Amino acid sequence: MTGNITYLGYGLAAIGPGIGVGLIFAAYINGVARQPEARGMLQTIAFTGMALTEALAILGLVFAFVF
After folding, report:
1. Contact 42, 31 (CB under 8 A)
2. Does 26 or 60 have the greater pLDDT score?
3. Distances in Å between the alpha carbon of 21 and those of 1, 48, 58, 65?
4. Dihedral sign, CA of 28, 30, 33, 34?
5. Which residue intervals define the domain V-ATPase proteolipid subunit C-like in the entry (predicted)?
6. Mean of the pLDDT values across residues 34-56?
7. In sequence order, which ranges of the chain are alpha helices (DSSP H)?
8. What is the CATH number of the domain that holds 62?
9. Which residue has the higher pLDDT, 9 or 23?
10. Which residue has better confidence, 67 or 25?
11. C-alpha 55: how far from chain center
């Protein structure tokens, strides 16, 4: 069996941010459905959380190529 195990590690590392983004936007939709007037504030928080969560996936990709 040949190959590099780091690519498997990146695949596993991408699962966490994928679940995280789903949970962030599920909470965003739930919050907007309960209080539509808070949409602007919740949208900013949701996109900030998504950016931080996706940074973890990018970090995993970098580590996969570095090591």
Report:
1. yes
2. 26
3. 34, 11, 14, 24
4. negative
5. 8-66
6. 94
7. 5-13, 15-34, 39-66
8. 1.20.20.10
9. 23
10. 25
11. 7
Angle at 41 between CA 57 and CA 50, to 5 degrees: 5
Torsion angle of the four alpha carbons 23, 27, 28, 33, in this order, in degrees rounded to the nearest 10: 140
Q: Quick check: is 8 in a domain?
A: no
Alpha-carbon dihedral 43, 47, 49, 30, rounded to 10 degrees: 40
In a domain, 10, yes or no: no
Residue indicated by tokens 């931080």: 52
Residue 9 lies in a domain: no
Residue with tokens 């994928």: 18
Query: Which residue segment(s) compose the domain that 27 sits in?
Result: 17-66
Q: Is residue 38 domain-resident?
A: yes
What is the tally of structural domains in the chain? 1
* Diameter over CA atoms, the chain: 57
